[in-house]
Amino acid sequence: MQTGLELVVLSTVTIIMISAIVGVYLLRLWLKQSSRLLTDLPLVFAVTTICSACQVLIPALQSVGILETTLPIFRIRSLIISGSIIPVLGAVLQIWAPNIQKYHMRIIAAVTLYWWFFALFGVSESLIMTATIPLVLASAIMLLVTFTVTWRTGRLKEMRSEWMVVGILPALMSQLLRVSLMSTPLFYVPDVLLMISFICIGLAFLKPKQKDEPSVKDEEISPKELPVSVEY
Known about the structure:
The chain is mainly α.
């Protein structure tokens, strides 16, 4: 049990550090771009990782007694988690559904209202988690598909798509196992899986491909398939 608690603490510290470093790094890259869009991947993942650091910090502070474990605090954490998911949805829509761009804001607004309604008015933590975890899983699956494509086609040289694919898989497993293992001796497993996920994601951004690495020729993939700007 003590080892499990130590692994949770180690995982939490690692996730917070990686999230903060990657988030600040990507935000600086985005600010240096000559042209900036809200759907640029550096900004999307900067917001996502910074929110991830904040939402992981809350249970860490609760575990040491600085914050109380209450439903209002859980509501705040759920709202922060939405900051990790909703920007990803916007980027994925821009990548895979550019033909319905006029509906993007409506879709994002609908998802935001849905999430915030349950985060603010859900009567219990379990209800809030039941309502929002499917969106977390859906966004992870969409990212998995997206980065599998960029990995296989050699696009997005500014990051390592293969590391993103490897990192998303343990994150998915963490979400799927968290509720079922929460009250068992293996309660630490989801946190360890999430730590592994963030290590891989950190490597994906902090160790980009070399510019001279070979990739699929541009004519082998339609330029419309990946319209999101990734200019650095």
